[in-house]
Design a protein that fits this description.
The complex is a heterodimer of chains A (456) and B (454). Chain A is built from 17 helices and 14 strands. Chain A is an alpha/beta fold and 456 residues long. In chain A, α14 links the parallel β11 and β12. In chain A, α1 crosses α7. The model of chain A has no long low-confidence stretch (mean pLDDT 95). By secondary structure, chain B is α/β, with parallel strands linked by helices. Chain B has 3 domains: 130 residues, Rossmann fold; 136 residues, Nitrogenase molybdenum iron protein domain (Rossmann fold, 3-Layer(aba) Sandwich); 108 residues, Nitrogenase molybdenum iron protein domain (Rossmann fold), CATH 3.40.50. Classes of the chains: A alpha/beta (456), B alpha/beta (454).
């Protein structure tokens, strides 16, 4: 059924401030703070908790009617003071909402004003230094959650990065990946002996151990002092296919401090992972550690062992544009035909980047659509009749309704356990994805077989 | 443990019961303190949770995408038929819409969606910026209603215009516009509406079934497994029974005023309150003794079955301590009684939206040393559960990780529950769930039991 589409039905995206809150959670000693209604903070907390199964405290300036009429200055200052008193953060990651943006609050001005109060002798909430305040503009009527994610990190380096003599240091901007992916990236960089700054790093803050007492701010995250040094780094590597330089943290560092920006698709699949590890070899002048040679060898071996199960299977993949680009490239190299590459995001670059990476994609019947919702994807699915649906939990209903085997990746995963521990990146992440895809096909074959083969 | 201070401006929202000498004057029904990381949501959330289960209506969120995205299929409110409520519709306003207004987009969206889904009615929720950009959603709703011939109801739920409770009011006002627009033909004398029951995990069916066993006709359930046509004729019922005091008493009061329908406040949680909910209704229809007889029979049968099952749990749960933090305070009363039936003690009782009467009631019910708290936050909740050495926290999704991080059992008594906790069978499920979490051997590794912490 083709439908007239003015409204968005079952959105394939989330709102801008969510991404900012997630990213701010990856800075050490940082509390995310939303300048808007109480509901924004609470809904986003609830949403992040459903995936990460961790406390996610997000403060709010808690607009009321007066705030909306007279401006948010008073509430924002009171909120900053209260959150400082209760959480004692080193950093407050302040993101705006549609409400504060629409009434036109000049947040930078309010922050200056707030800081001046203390300069002029007002006692500090805890008698401690004022937290650093990073402000990202993230109105939900622009873009989607992924834009907020990058905006927060760009605002962070813009606030903190410093010039100085060049250091043997690599900045890695990993994009919106899982805590397990972040841990893997740290392991890789350590094994290459490359000094690095990973931004953001919520590998511990959103996937940590048990507590004896409530940690108002969970430990972990990228330290502020490390972020200051990003301006002196030898290079930035950014996993993105569609992010424009003028919206990117690495783009900022290149423009302001001359730190070269290397962008590449998220390293999913052998080819993309080779490109990433190759770049690390080049930048560090260190050969690939044996451990990763082994991971790669096992992966190639697994490709051989599993190729027949999946060859020619048709897949729909959806999610953030960068994830879709990387997943599509991976699916293409293992013999799966991506019949629809879809995203709720709309950078305007999805198609171009996909075709650069997989030149024959459209000729082989692969459709590319941005700015879509799940009703669009389902309409396509009815015609395309895919064998696999690959994306976040939001696709479950259509997978169930249309009987399409479903592989959960990315964010959010709220109908399965352990989404925060899924790997996607590098040889290790690719291995995990490949095993899951092959097993999904095998399971489907096994359960639909009248014989019930015990060897597949 | 590092001392955690209570924020200035919140001290009066927290009370610890210590003898009779402390004057009890808790501050509540106020907006959350800025920067306090409240567990509350907003006006929109209040409206959305109340209306959400109406299954044959279109629910359109007018605003940028977030509010619709975060409330897509969010509650476990199940339907026996249509499932339109499980879809998420948004006008997904963009920058240009904010500048030039979103009325046209809303109008076009509604026409298309109504054609596509053929709903019995449509609820149009205003979000924060609608109040600012001045869209006249009443006019759009009126126009679409005339063109499409179904009720199209504006819900004035701009997030910042009050608290979650104001959202309940907005939702009730929308429902009230439907009430009285249908035919009451064929509705008998012994008839009720079930209000404030959202059919989470099929709970409304359990309750409905009890009343039907007593010979009572259920005209409508609001809003669990709700249907527009039932709501339209609900003024034909003789009695409204209202659960979830905060959200729908307003509608009951309006129906009493306009249609002279009396109402009773009830709760379906725990043996005591569930039985009372049945007896109170039977007593209301005292001119028909068969109803009371049926109620007695039902209660005695159910309790007879349930009681021995609970004894097994009681042996192990007796003396365990529970902390309760729920949306509406009325539920806390039932939970305290339900936990008492297995000899569990409540050390913290709090709610997002309780009023003075609620908190006074809680104070009366609770033991010495119990903390009573309004509109709390993670820092406070964790402080109290640790100080009071709770073995269990009862709350919703946002409270769950607090409990688990600290190595404390947890029971979800909120929108996402998948197992019914209401009624007699729900009481069994509830205690079993409490048991499963409190008695799990995994806590032996928790730092508070001597395990390593991070």
């Amino acid at each position: 059924m083709k439908t007239a589409k003015t409204a968005t039905q079952n959105a394939c995206k989330l709102c801008n401030p969510l991404g900012a809150c997630l990213a701010f959670r990856g800075i050490e000693e940082c509390v995310p703070f939303l300048h808007g209604s109480q509901g924004c903070a609470t809904y986003i907390r609830r949403y992040l908790i459903s995936h990460f199964k961790e406390p996610v405290d997000i403060a709010s300036s808690n607009f009321n009617e007066d705030t909306a009429v007279f401006g948010g200055s008073h509430n924002l200052k009171l909120g900053l003071k209260n959150v400082t008193q209760q959480y004692r953060p080193k950093v407050i990651g302040l993101a705006t909402t549609c409400l504060s943006e629409t009434i036109g609050d000049d947040v930078d001005m309010i922050l200056k004003d707030y800081v001046r109060l203390f300069d002029e002798g007002e006692p500090l909430p805890n008698g401690e230094p004022l937290p650093l305040m990073i402000h990202a503009s993230t109105p939900s009527y622009q873009g989607s959650h992924i834009d907020g994610f990058h905006a927060a990190m760009r605002a962070t380096v813009a606030k903190l990065a410093e010039a100085g003599p060049k250091k043997n240091l690599l900045n890695l901007f990993p994009n919106m990946v899982s805590p397990a992916d972040l841990r893997y990236m740290k392991e890789v960089l350590k094994d290459f002996a490359i000094p690095y700054v990973l931004l953001p790093d919520y590998s511990e803050t959103l996937d940590g151990g048990p507590w004896a007492e409530y940690h108002r701010i969970p430990k972990g995250g990228t330290p502020v002092n490390a972020i200051r040094e990003t301006g002196m780094a030898a290079a930035s590597v950014e996993f993105t296919s569609t992010l424009a330089a003028d919206k990117s943290p690495a783009g900022f560092l290149e423009q302001e401090f001359g730190v070269p920006r290397y962008t590449m698709a998220m390293p999913i699949g052998i080819k993309q992972s080779d490109a990433f590890f190759g770049l690390l070899e080049k930048l560090s002048e260190t050969p690939l550690p044996e451990k990763y040679e082994d991971e790669r060898r096992r992966l190639v071996d697994a490709y051989a062992d599993g190729h027949k199960y999946i060859f020619g299977k048709k897949a729909i993949v959806y999610g953030e544009e960068d994830l879709v680009v990387a997943m599509t490239a991976f699916l293409s190299e293992i013999g799966i035909d991506p019949v629809l590459c879809a995203s709720g995001g709309k950078s305007g670059r999805l198609k171009k980047r996909l075709l650069e990476l997989i030149p024959g994609l459209e000729e082989k019947g692969g459709k590319i659509r941005d700015g879509v919702d799940f009703v669009d994807i389902e309409d396509e699915a009815k015609v395309l009749k895919p064998d696999l649906l690959i994306g976040n939990s939001k696709g479950y209903t259509m997978s169930r309704k249309n009987g399409i085997p479903f592989i959960r990746i990315g964010f959010p995963i709220h109908d399965r356990f352990g989404g925060q521990r899924l790997h996607h990146l590098g040889y290790r992440g690719t291995q995990e994805l490949f095993d899951r895809i092959v097993n999904t096909v095998i399971e489907q074959r096994q359960s639909s077989s009248p014989i019930g083969y015990t060897y597949m | 443990m590092e001392k955690i201070g209570i924020l200035e401006g919140r001290q009066r929202q927290i009370y610890e019961k210590k003898g009779e000498e402390t004057a009890f004057d808790i501050k509540c029904e106020t907006t959350s303190l800025s920067g306090s990381v409240s567990q509350r949501a907003c006006v929109f959330c209040g409206s959305r949770v109340v209306l959400y289960p109406v299954a044959d209506a279109l629910h359109v969120v007018h605003g940028p995408i977030g509010c619709a995205a975060y409330t897509w299929d969010i509650r476990g409110a199940v339907s026996s038929g249509p499932e339109l409520h499980r879809l998420s519709f948004s006008t997904d306003l963009k920058e240009m819409d904010v500048i030039y207004g979103g009325e046209k987009k809303l109008y076009r969206s509604l026409l298309e969606l109504i054609d596509q889904y053929q709903p019995k009615a449509a609820f149009i929720y205003s979000t924060c910026i609608i109040g600012l950009i001045g869209d006249d959603i009443d006019a759009v709703c009126k126009k679409v209603s005339q063109e499409k011939g179904i009720p199209v109801l504006p819900v004035h739920s701009e997030g910042f215009k009050g608290t979650k409770k104001d959202g309940y009011k907005a939702a009730c006002d929308s429902l009230m516009k439907l009430v009285g627009t249908g035919s009451t033909e064929g509705i008998g004398k012994y008839s009720i509406n079930i209000l404030g029951e959202f059919n989470l995990a099929g709970e409304a069916w359990i309750i409905r079934n009890y009343y039907e066993q007593m010979g009572i006709e259920v005209v409508s359930t609001m809003t669990g497994d709700g249907r527009i046509d039932d709501i339209r004729r609900s003024h034909g019922a003789s009695l409204n029974i209202v659960q979830c005091s905060g959200s729908m008493v307003r509608l009951a009061k309006q129906m009493e005023e306009k249609y002279g329908i009396p109402y009773l406040r009830v709760s379906y949680f725990g043996i005591e309150d569930m039985s009372k909910a049945l007896y109170d209704v039977a007593r209301h229809f005292s001119d028909n003794p068969a109803i009371m007889e049926a109620a007695k029979k039902l209660v005695s049968r159910e309790v007879g079955e349930l009681y021995p099952q609970l004894q097994q749990f009681r042996r192990e749960l007796a003396g365990k301590k529970a902390a309760i933090y729920v949306g509406g305070a009325f539920k806390a009363f039932s939970l305290i009684k339900a936990l008492a039936s297995v000899d569990m003690k409540v050390v913290l009782a709090g709610s997002q939206t309780g009023n003075k009467d609620d908190y006074n009631g809680l104070k009366e019910m609770c033991d010495e040393g119990t903390v009573i708290v309004d509109d709390s936050n993670p820092v406070e909740l964790s402080k109290f559960v640790l100080e009071k050495e709770a073995d269990l926290l009862i709350g919703g999704v946002k409270e769950r990780p607090i409990a688990y991080k600290l190595g404390i059992g947890f029971c979800d008594h909120n929108h996402e529950r998948k197992i019914p906790l209401a009624g007699f069978e729900g009481m069994y499920n509830f205690i079993r769930e409490v048991y499963n979490s409190v008695m799990s051997p995994v806590w032996q590794f928790a730092p508070r039991k001597g395990g390593l912490s991070s």
